Description:
alpha+beta, three-stranded antiparallel β-sheet, 148 residues, 3 strands, 3 helices, 20% strand
Amino acid sequence: MVGKSRAQALIEFTLVMPMMLCMLLGLIDFGRAYVAGVALEGASREGARLAMDRNQTDAAVLARVQLSAQPVTLAAADVTVCAAVIAPPAFPPSCNPTGVFAVRDASTAGKAVTVTAHTFVPFFTAFLTRWLGFTGLPVTGSTTMQGL
Length: 148
């Protein structure tokens, strides 16, 4: 009797283990995407805070966003900074998603500055990429701040 129950446990283990392993690896991949999203939100917040300073250049804002986005690596085309005059409580207009920095004048008073950073997080888990057809997730972080 003892041999039958051991064999049954081994068969159940071999049936359940691949599914549990796939779930664990999928959770790790989605966790990496979540960490990237949190990093991009913080980086866009840092960039918007720096962009509100009228003495800062667009290159300084880009460098701050790229540095703050760690562990995510961002290219210059992945960061968009645009400024627009708004009258509260209106929402700021949407930015041009080309990655080109908007020309900011010497004063940001009354302007809303939007900093958007985006990246693509590839999946490493084979069952997500081959069987389900997922290659990764696009991740975006955006912050809008208005000057006083």
